């Protein structure tokens, strides 16, 4: 709800980085409250004096993902898209580039989330037509007994073909063991040539070793992904040239590793 509200805020700007006409219907007053509460805590990540930082981060990360997905779709090398922890994501409904994913968009999340999203789309948005077939996949990433690959196969996912895998706002809630299992599960489901776009809460090795279990240092992420067979790792931090779009006040703050992405290819 919070991220949906922040996508709505961006949509209303005259210089919006993207348009999400569905966001406000999913945000509710709770989304607004959560956003304002998070922004009040900006000082904890070294961004004191920039209270709207998380709203800008949501806009920038959404644009970053939209742009990368469009670039990948344009290659015509991928016919399937897997959205891991999809939540209230609307890309399959608002991005025309999803026409390229003829094999479907597989939205993976807990059953209660999938059902809630289905109800919102039906009751408040008039059941909009997606640009490709959308397949909800019910899975709890905190359940050690679940297997992503088999759940995707049940939804007609073809794991012999390369796909685009997106993980936005998820791995920071899985803990250290959960993060390792997550990467292992995605690797098992991904054919050679697949691309993973992964957002993570960056931190130093010291911070992660001291118990900040929601953090994933760049070094650890690189080790986990490389050991699992991923290559061409491209890291970006909020404020870097590619993860900025003119919204990060570089004259006041250094790029922050706490808000990071890695894009990589399965070998």
Summary?
Pfam families: LCM. The protein is of the alpha/beta class. It has helices at residues 2-12, 23-40, 53-74, 91-94, 111-123, 148-154, 175-189, 205-209, 218-227; strands at 80-84, 104-109, 134-138, 164-167, 195-200, 230-238, 256-266.
Question: Care to describe what's here?
Answer:
InterPro entries: Ppm1/Ppm2/Tcmp, SAM-dependent_MTases_sf, SAM_mthyl_Trfase_ML2640-like. Belongs to the UPF0677 family. Keywords: Methyltransferase, Transferase. The chain is α/β, with parallel strands linked by helices and 267 residues long. Helices cover 39% and strands 17% of the residues. It contains nine helices and seven strands; from the N terminus they run H-H-H-E-H-E-H-E-H-E-H-E-H-H-E-E. It has helices at residues 2-12, 23-40, 53-74, 91-94, 111-123, 148-154, 175-189, 205-209, 218-227, and strands at 80-84, 104-109, 134-138, 164-167, 195-200, 230-238, 256-266. A seven-stranded mixed sheet has the order 3-2-1-4-5-7-6, sandwiched between helices. Strand 4, helix 7 and strand 5 form a beta-alpha-beta unit. The radius of gyration is 18 Å and the shape is globular.
Strand order of the main beta sheet, please?
A: 3-2-1-4-5-7-6
Tell me the distance between the termini. 36 Å
Strand percent estimate: 15-25%
CATH superfamily: Vaccinia Virus protein VP39
What overall geometry do the principal axes of the alpha carbons give? globular
> What would the average pLDDT be, to the nearest integer?
93
Largest sheet: 7 strands, mixed
- CATH class division: Alpha Beta
CATH architecture group name: 3-Layer(aba) Sandwich
Helix amount = 25-40%
Report the order of strands and helices: HHHEHEHEHEHEHHEE
CATH topology: Rossmann fold
How many domain regions?
Answer: 1
Helix count, per DSSP?
9
Low-pLDDT parts are 206-211
What assembly state would you assign to the polypeptide chains in this entry? single chain
Secondary structure class reads alpha/beta
What is the number of E strands?
7
Family: Belongs to the UPF0677 family.
InterPro entries: Ppm1/Ppm2/Tcmp, SAM-dependent_MTases_sf, SAM_mthyl_Trfase_ML2640-like
GO molecular function: methyltransferase activity
Keywords: Methyltransferase, Transferase
């Amino acid at each position: 709800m919070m991220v949906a509200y922040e996508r709505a805020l961006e949509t209303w700007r005259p210089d919006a980085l993207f348009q999400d006409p569905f966001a406000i219907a999913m945000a509710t007053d709770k989304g607004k409250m959560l956003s304002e509460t998070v922004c009040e805590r900006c000082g904890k990540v070294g961004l004191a004096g920039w209270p709207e930082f998380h709203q800008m981060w949501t806009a920038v990360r959404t644009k970053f993902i939209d742009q990368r997905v469009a670039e990948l779709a344009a290659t015509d090398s991928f016919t399937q898209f897997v959205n891991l922890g999809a939540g209230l994501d609307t890309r399959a409904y608002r991005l025309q580039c999803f026409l390229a994913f003829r094999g479907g968009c597989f939205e993976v999340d807990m059953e209660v989330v999938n059902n809630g999203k289905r109800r919102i789309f039906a009751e408040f948005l008039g059941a909009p037509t997606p640009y490709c077939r959308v397949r909800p996949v019910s899975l709890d990433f905190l359940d050690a007994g679940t297997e992503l690959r088999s759940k995707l196969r049940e939804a007609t996912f073809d794991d012999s073909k390369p796909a685009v895998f997106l993980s936005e706002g998820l791995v920071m809630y899985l803990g250290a063991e959960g993060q390792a299992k997550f990467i292992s599960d995605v690797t098992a489901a991904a054919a050679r040539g697949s691309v993973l776009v992964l957002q993570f809460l960056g931190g130093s090795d010291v911070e992660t070793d001291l118990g900040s279990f929601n953090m994933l240092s760049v070094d650890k992420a690189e080790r986990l992904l490389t050991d699992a067979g991923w290559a061409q790792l491209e890291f970006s931090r909020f404020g870097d040239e590619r993860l900025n779009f003119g919204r990060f006040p570089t004259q006041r703050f250094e790029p922050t590793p706490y808000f990071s992405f890695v894009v990589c290819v399965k070998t």
